[in-house]
User: Fold these one by one.
Assistant:
Number 1:
Amino acid sequence: MDEKDIIGKIEKKFGIKGRIFRERRISVKTESDGLIDLCRYLKGLGFGHLSTVSVTDFIGDGEYEILYFLWSYRDDLALIARTRISREEPSMDSVSGIWEEAQIHERELHELFGVEFRGNPDLSGLFLEGWDQKPPFRKDFDWREYVRRKYYRNDGRERGYFEVEK
Amino acid sequence: MMIMEDAKKLKRLVKSVWVFNWFNSCGFTEILPVVGSRWDMERFGMIPVASPRHADCLIIAGYQTEKSIRRAQRIYRQMPKPAVVIGLGSCSMSGGMYWDSYNTIKRLSDYIPVDLYIPGCPPRPEAIFGGIMKIVQKVKGNG
């Protein structure tokens, strides 16, 4: 199958118009509640590999865009499935039941953007330890102010000083 | 004469500096030429050891995250004292290019007692050897 066949199949099944934005690169935009069905169908079409999941923070629109980067080894095609969710209460169905490798990507996005992936078995912390602020990759997180308060205080040392045994 | 002999014997007791490397940033690529055959740190007796319990010197390279600095502190506790800690590169001194990162510590000596900083981004192997020589002189008592 080539790009046009896949776009035609998706349009026939879901009524969504895909777009070829480059040679062998397809972009499909969908509503957030229809994404799981689309993903399941795409896996049946041969998109067996989920490269990564990514979130973009569109703070002006009040929305997160979630992108799923898929690759088909059968047809040598890349497909980006994208959907938008509200950024106030970000919540999304997990695709870790379809592609097992989605689990760690969703765990990371949960930590960095605060997206709640429903159905993901483990969304515990990954990189940040003892983090009590809002997720750091949100655009309204003032990281420079946070760094100034936490690390560049005028009263001397940072917290966590290791006392030497004498 | 006898005293001289004793001093010679004592000097022989000063052992080589065995190094435990704690690198989780670009620092490892910077010390690789020192380990390798061109600069060859073993000619100074420096051997990278597998366990911090065998090490005299802990080299911490580059920035440490909030997560990794706890592991570094744990490694330091496991080392037999007296031990020497070397901070390698400008990131360990001031945060370097990560001066405004929300998750990296900015000054290593606020978390671990650091004996020596080797500045540079990256430090040249000659600078690393210069630092090690300072440590050796300190151990021998004439530095």
Number 2:
Amino acid sequence: MIGYLLRRLGYALPIMLGVSFLCFMLVYLAPGDPLVSILPADASAELQKQMMQLYGFDRPLIEQFVRWLWRALQGDLGHSIATSRPVVDEVFKAVGNTLMIAVLATLIGFTLGALFGFVAGYFRNSWGDRLASFVSVIGVSLPNYWLGMVLVIVFSAQLMWLPATGAGPGGSGSWTWDWEHVQYLILPALTMSFIPMGIVARTVRALVADILSQEFVVGLRARGLGEWGVFKHVVKNCAPTALAVMGLQLGYLLGGSILIETVFSWPGTGFLLNQAIFQRDLPLLQGTILVLALFFVALNLLVDVLQTIFDPRIERG
Amino acid sequence: MSMKLPKQTPATALSRFALALSLAIGCTTAAEAAEKVLRIGMTAGDIPRTLGQPDQGYEGNRFTGITLYDSLTQWDLSSGDKASVLIPGLAESWSVDPADQTKWIFKLRPDVTFHDGSPFNADAVVWNVDKVLNKDAPQYDPSQIGVTASRMPTLRSARKVDELTVELTTSEPDSFLPYNLTNLFMASPSHWQAKADALPASVADPAARSQQAWAAFAADSSGTGPFKQARFVPRERLEIVANTDYWDAKRRPQIDRVVLLPLPEASARTAALMSGQVDWIEAPAPDSIDAIKARGYKLYSNLQPHLWPWQFSLLPESPFHDKQVRQAANLCVNREELKALLSGQMEPATGVVEPGDPWRGNPSFQVRYDVAAGQKLMQAAGYSASKPAKVKVQTSASGSGQMQPLPMNEYIQQNLRDCYFDVEFDVLEWNTLYSSWRLGAKDPAAHGADATNVSAAVMDPFFAMVRFVSSKALPPVSNNWGYYIDEKTDALVEKARTTFDEQARNEALGELHANIVDEAPFLFVAHDVGPRALSAKIGNVVQPRSWFIDIATMTLD
């Protein structure tokens, strides 16, 4: 197991280096000016040139990358051009905020998705299957920003039951786990859970249907194992794939949904990325993408390890 | 010693919870009654910088500039009926040296203190000029240059004469300097120094020390403005509280606390207002205006010093090189219908400024909707339905101050077809568009365009007119994108710039403006009206003809 872990870590290192190179360079492909946040539109080209020199953006890209990587390896992702605040602080605060809704959305999505998937897979072609499949298709098909807006209109603007925007009455800086704050989580997390719910439901349905048709299930039943016993075997066989799917979904959610977080003004990674993109805040953009990409790599690694624990044949393979 | 609590049943737990909840609600209500809190949803995606030179355009100046800070001169925001004019701020008076018109003497207001208690004086002014102009000053901050230096293009240095007198020097005689100085906010040198002194010695690089000291200052700022910074949650909220010792008794805030929230998405902003999360939103979603009014909110708007134009290329290969073609385009846009298209959220533009403005002058060419007159001019220029003028226009799909560029441009395209124009659009991303704007019509980035659609703030004479029409403002110096070069215009610019008497300068600017309308280097289309929706409980609201609004004089029931 330790050898497998080290081997997987070894694979992850070049991936991380490649990711850091890509996320540094990709932002330069976008049109526009890296100093847009501190240079108004009416600033002259002369002043812009002077500022580019002051910020070092006139240096060769490779030189800029090496400097950036060297600092990043020491935990310094630079300072935001727009705010002068350290990028590391900005990114990790946003990751924490996104983590709150992502984990809640994952819990909702995975629970409901697994429920619908099992019902649909176990009772294929029944009305329960049709209903569960319909809900899962809705989940993957509805644009989630639209769903978010509808939820806001209904529950905030019309019924006035839940807040429309923000991360608590005093912002995320004074978050506590009480109703006054938790109510701010509900609409964004619910909106965010729809897609993973649909995907997990469809995956689990297909898996359950496939497993139930396999010979070992017939064998188990022939040996007199009850439905509960068979169900446990189905769950165990479904788990590695369902976990992998859910891990990927959690990875996507941790990246934050730009649209959902913008609709709800939730100060997570999606909201931060949106700001960084609009302000062409390159250090912030590069830092955020890097941290999220590394999270994704780490999460994949974790899922691989968990899969191996559930199914040791993977390690041997 | 331990105390045994009685066993808690679900019913007792529930009743305790209900009691705690009602007490909490009661306390909150009492606290809210004691403190008047105004909550504002801004269009900005982030809290505008609080260090004294805000970003996020003029919305930044509106909410973290004039609230927390003062400048030597300031805009009069007390009337919604006339154009906003310049009035004394931290300077009580100013005058140019008659012997050397590049030198100005500013007499400072006595007995003004920063929020940290340190005195405002001539040293503070010199220090604040140095923060953006003197590379050798410890407080020099490149991140503040962009929004400052470009808005006071001729200021070069400051010198203390005595405790309450400073001398400012410009690169050339420039009567517009007092207008430009509304953009230089006075931050507390003592407070900044305290932040710098608190930095660890390991931060040795002067540039890094300055950057980190300013970042610390932004988190806990100190100006002289009517509000003081109280709580700052980056990217989420800024809370500012009344400065009860503010030097201008008429502008001592009536509202105890103002909470500023960045809500960049229009529908989210509108929902926040409708759900009672905020009391005021900037730029409500146009299609929600009726619903907002139906809920009892008040909608305010007024003509802003803003221009949504097409800036023409006057290069020889452009059809707009011909003045008749430029004037014809101005006669063929039905601005009233365009206003209806925008649900009334614009004012038709008949110049850079409108009648009633002290800089309007008396143009001989009247910008109006007159297709027959436009067609006549086009025929005189050699165009017809069978031989239209093919023009390419650069625009963006969105952007700050661009209003609704695509539907507006498509409407103009249809209008101009009636006057023998064949308009093609080159739609760029907003930042790309204005990067191209800086480089001018000759640059490859212009893609051979005959006009560019970049909206502009037109607050002061330089920004309203000079930068577009002076031959000294050709790219890369400033925004004369279309290479408009005209001796008469240059002479009028020079006259206005060197006229130091206010009345005479307004007349000179009127002449310059009339000349600009007559020469039509722009297709004058629209002015923004800065719509905002406010709760009826906010009183004494004056929406001036300005980008700014004075929260200090408002009340809250």
